[in-house]
Design goal:
- The chain has about 110 residues and is of the alpha+beta class.
- It is about 35% helix and about 15% strand.
- The protein contains three helices and four strands, in the order αββαββα.
- The chain has a four-stranded antiparallel β-sheet with strand order 1-2-4-3, covered by helices on one side.
- The longest helix is centred in the middle third of the chain and has 18 residues.
- It is globular and about 40 Å long.
């Protein structure tokens, strides 16, 4: 299995079906344990805690850079010292490998 951090997102708009939950569970195994799949199996999410607003905003900007570079954008909920990141491939109504690639790149921010 190829390391997700070395892969790049591929266009899947209208060309791909959502990833089956079993495949999503396998891909989840390549991410930090804090990532989880929602109850519908259509998104993955992880919450991050920081010391202060400055660290939170630095993280948000780094995630924005990843999103821009991969042309795959998460939903984020941001507070003073926290940020929740959620990936889902909206164009197909569920999860794709792109979600896991970007999540792995977010994990790499802490390696």
């Amino acid at each position: 299995m190829t390391d997700l951090k070395t892969k790049h997102c591929q266009s899947c708009e209208g060309f791909t079906n959502p990833m089956p939950r079993e495949d999503a569970q396998r891909a989840l195994g390549q991410l930090h344990d804090a990532w989880g799949i929602d109850e519908t199996g259509k998104s993955i999410q992880r919450s991050f805690k920081f010391k202060n607003f400055h660290e939170t905003m630095a993280f948000v900007n780094a995630v924005a850079w990843i999103a821009h570079a991969e042309d795959h954008h998460p939903d984020m909920a941001v507070g003073f010292n926290r940020c929740a990141v959620e990936y889902s491939t909206h164009a197909i109504g569920g999860l794709s490998e792109n979600d896991f690639i970007c999540a792995a790149r977010v994990d790499a921010l802490f390696d």
